Amino acid sequence: NSLVLLHSLQGGVRVELVLLSIPEDPKTSAGFDEKELQKEKTGEKAERIEDNTSPDDPVKEAKEHFPPPNPQLLLTDAVFETVTIGSLPSLHFLNETVFEKTISEREDTEKILSSSKEQKSDLISGVYEGGLKVWECTYDLLEQIENNGETFRDKAVLDLGCGAGLLGILALKRGARQVHFQDYNSTVIEQLTVPNVILNCQEDEEGEKNDIQGRDGCEKEVEEIGNPPPKKRATDMPQHTLLRRCFFFSGNWRTFLPLVLTKEPQPKFDIIFTSETIYNTAYYPALHEALQKLLASNGLVYLATKSHYFGVGGGLHLFETFVKEKGVFSLDHLWDGEEGLQRHVVVLRFKKYV
Ligand SMILES: C[S@@+](CC[C@H](N)C(=O)[O-])C[C@H]1O[C@@H](n2cnc3c(N)ncnc32)[C@H](O)[C@@H]1O
């Protein structure tokens, strides 16, 4: 066994990769490809979205998921990355490339792992809504949180369309009272979101990982440093206190809303994050209703998005028009990116609180 660290700096975003309990030759046996990873982080690799211009709002019955009694077992042989943005706590998440390469070993009752691989698509409307990878607007939103100094202490947070869950995980690590994670696909919640939360919970119980953070990571670099020290072994960790503040749901927004509203006390969120979720106009009514019913009266929705999603047709302009017509929320631009395919971070709040 060996531990490999890979890290690089792009703008203010630092990305590291850690492999735990890997076989002798990680490149051939796990199929791990550093170049692919770097391309993704620099945005060179565009998303592969299936061409589907008139999809209906799909029905996918919502369900609550509970972490298993020994959640750390989910991290056996985990290969993960770390992203560090400014002074934000480091965030860890399972590496997507390795995830793809180990599909055959994973439980996939929805068959989304195999479908997305077969169809070479990062999004298949109504089947797989893209949660297995970290989309780039998530990083934009993390940077805006860093710039804004948003505090999460004692707040109730919802990561809507969470995928890997980095936004909710950040809130959790910054002291949120509770964090709800929702994704369309149960496989995403079980195979990715829950393991990622556990990955980050264990660090918190040990304190920040200075051994990784202390390295000067300007150049991409791969290091072999022998057996992982005991504190890096994911399977040795105690039960996780942070995990008790988390709630996990899968299903479409239309059925998620009534399910989450059956909870006592009924949740109202101070902050709702939603990143790269407005690509499909057919989903706008359900999304808008969920935001309207779940946001606390003086709460904020942070939405990160591209201007336009080719293949599915939605984007910020259409969503802004929809929001304006509804007349419930005001929408302000927090950040507008200029490069390439334009990206934005906007904030929604109830009009009466403007
Ligand atoms: C492109 S992924 C983005 C994932 C993650 N937020 C990110 O930025 O990396 C879109 C997410 O929105 C969620 N989503 C999209 N349409 C949905 C719908 N109709 N009902 C419920 N969730 C939906 C999916 O769960 C999916 O993870």
UniProtKB/TrEMBL annotation:
GO molecular function: protein-L-histidine N-tele-methyltransferase activity
One annotated Gene Ontology cellular component of this protein: cytoplasm
Coarse class of the protein's main subcellular location: cytoplasm
Any GO BP annotation: methylation
UniProt-annotated stretches for the region Disordered: 28-68
Compartment(s): Cytoplasm; Nucleus
Family from the record: Belongs to the methyltransferase superfamily. METTL18 family.
Name listed for the protein in its UniProt record: protein-histidine N-methyltransferase
Species per Swiss-Prot/TrEMBL record: Oryzias melastigma
Organism taxonomic ancestry: Eukaryota, Metazoa, Chordata, Craniata, Vertebrata
